[in-house]
Amino acid sequence: MIFSRIFSKKRQDTTGFVDRDMIEILMNGVFSFTMTLIVKNIPLPTVADIANPDIIVNFFERTMYDGISFIFTFLILALFWLFVFEVHRGIKFVEPGVVLIEFVLLLTIVLIPISSIYLNYSDDVPVFSTAFHLNVLVSGLLVLILALYTLHRKVLHDPDISYLSRQRLAIRASIIPIAAVFGLFQAFFEFQVIDDLIVYLVAAVIIAILAKKYP
CB 3.0–4.6 Å: which of 101, 111, 113, 132 could bond 37 by disulfide? Predict the structure, then answer.
């Protein structure tokens, strides 16, 4: 009964289930918290490390990958944030279906700092890398579902945003899940053809090129 009301095609009111600004404030808060939390994955040197030049050099060598991991995990979260707010830019109001998808998305987003911890050890324990790619895949699919849902719910459409622009947004949103599937394939079969960082960086570059060429 609840879900039939949420996804009913007959819903035509434009008052909104909740205020869109409130949803966006919540989204901003969760994304900000998650982006801050991934910094905790980078270990800090101890007093003993700082006192010994040789140890501090070795420390920075050991944590270099953690820093790179932080940057590209931050990049993935930033892309998800941009996709969500590009969807919001094209809708007149927020209905229950949108709220439901976004709440489930936020639940998966807050798990990324946890799953990204294990990325540093993915070469030794492939299952941990699988957890990260799976997390990104689920989050990416939810962003894609959100884009497709609002694409086909014409009652939500802001007339200032063309249908073609919405289609292009959905195409761009599909790139991160594709990259995650490729990462999952490499992790599951322990067959590292391309480094994980390269996979997601290439995906981000493709998204940027498509966004600039086909806005």
Answer: 113
